[in-house]
Design brief:
By secondary structure, the chain is of the alpha/beta class. Strands 4, 5, 6, 7, 8, 9, 10, 11 and 12 form a nine-stranded mixed beta sheet that branches. Strands 1-2-3 form a three-stranded antiparallel beta sheet, with helices on both faces. It is built from 13 helices and 14 strands. The chain is globular. Helix 2 runs antiparallel to helix 3 and helix 9 runs parallel beside helix 10. The mean pLDDT is 97. 37% of the residues lie in helices and 15% in strands. The longest helix has 21 residues.
Length: 383
């Protein structure tokens, strides 16, 4: 046992927020509190948590989690839950490092020895997907995800969907599985049409076919297609998730470990999903610490199915040279072979953070600004 001595956070390129916790005996752990486009808000929340939780017993992870959540009165939401996630992940890393064990051992032990993964192609305005998919195949991936459309109007011409179907067809013809991320960009009139048009091409899933707040529309859509429906990155707790499970409107749940309260909460969400025969495929176009935490959860979760990896995702390449192989000492942990990454077996999260690089980049890293689309008439469109 040891009391929390320091909680530090580091804003780093391209758009990540890392957390380091050290106890009074010098034991430490790393977490990730990234909330894309809202780093300053999470940093403010972390400042408050530093004042609150320095001096807490570092091993009492659940007590700290419950205190942060329930004694906040105004609870949940992306900012609070992302800040809490960074602290929660760091505490699990600290505890398992102190015990000299891989983190998944503390969560019940491994149910698999390697993790199925996919990566991104195509960018925000998807293009050149055939060449990009071939490159991913050469890297070892056997599944990819891409945005289904560019920005699109509430009710647009049906022809606006033709290129979406063609891109899916092209990638499938290469022998790869492909998930189509609607990204909440489409409204119901267009989402229904696109789901039907894609069905003959058998995508792996369609993601956020509507925004998560349109739960009744998602329920309706689930009765109109046989394509698995996936969502979850904009659900921040088990209470946000339960409506979709009760409605039986989704097939794949995609909570983000850095948005939903960390390892403690994603484990609870996974167990809820298993009881409804829903698969877990965590959202993670983020940094190496969040990805390592996802991998530890995947190792010990029966209903886990596939893990998103942000390797050279467009958000990273647009920002420069920083990617998930930065900030860690052994970059081979992210090597992909025949669609899988080997399970992480090192102590803690299974990665060693390059603290020198983190501190160096954090000195000058600016916050990543949110993106958005504007229609030709000047109206705001979903991004």
């Amino acid at each position: 046992m040891g009391k929390i001595k320091t909680i530090e956070y580091f804003r780093v390129l391209p758009r990540w927020l890392f957390v380091k916790i050290t106890d009074e005996h010098g034991n430490y752990g790393w977490g990730e509190a990234t909330l894309e486009g809202h780093s300053q808000a999470v940093e403010g929340c972390l400042d408050a948590m530093v004042q609150r939780f320095v001096g807490y017993e570092a091993d009492n992870i659940e007590l700290l989690w419950q205190t942060a959540h329930r004694h906040s009165f105004y609870r949940g939401g992306p900012v609070l839950m992302s800040a809490l996630a960074g602290i929660d992940i760091a505490l699990w890393d600290l505890l398992s490092r102190r015990l000299n064990l891989p983190l998944h051992v503390l969560l019940g032990g491994a149910v698999r020895h390697k993790i199925k993964v996919y990566s991104w192609i195509g960018g925000d305005r998807p293009r050149d997907v055939e060449a990009a998919a071939k490159e991913r195949y050469a890297q070892g991936f056997r599944a990819v995800k891409m945005n289904a459309t560019e920005d699109i109007d509430w009710l647009d011409s049906p022809s606006a969907l033709d290129t979406s179907v063609e891109r899916c067809r092209v990638v499938k013809a290469l022998g790869m599985d492909v998930g189509l991320d609607f990204h909440g960009r489409l409204h119901k009139p267009m989402a229904k049409q696109l789901a039907k048009a894609l069905e003959p091409h058998k995508p792996l899933f369609i993601e956020e076919p509507l925004l998560s707040e349109h739960y009744e529309g998602i329920k309706q859509l689930s009765g109109l297609t046989t394509i698995p429906i996936a969502l979850g990155e904009r659900l921040y707790s088990r209470w946000d998730v339960k409506r979709f499970l009760h409605d039986t409107s989704i097939d794949v749940l995609q909570p983000d470990i850095s948005h939903c309260g960390g390892i403690s909460e994603i484990r609870r969400i996974a167990s809820m999903a298993e009881a409804y025969d829903v698969a877990l495929a965590p959202h993670c176009p983020l940094g190496p610490i969040a990805l390592a935490a996802c991998m530890q959860v995947a190792m010990c979760t029966p209903n886990f199915t596939i893990q998103e990896m942000g390797l050279t995702i467009h958000y990273n390449t647009e920002a420069g040279a920083y990617d998930i192989k930065n900030y860690i000492k052994d970059k081979r942990v992210w090597d992909v072979r025949e669609g899988y990454v080997e399970g992480l077996t090192g102590v803690g999260l299974g990665i060693e953070v390059d603290e020198e690089e983190v501190r160096s980049v954090a000195k000058e890293a600016n916050a990543w600004a949110p993106k958005g689309f504007v229609g030709p008439d000047g109206s705001i469109r979903e991004w």
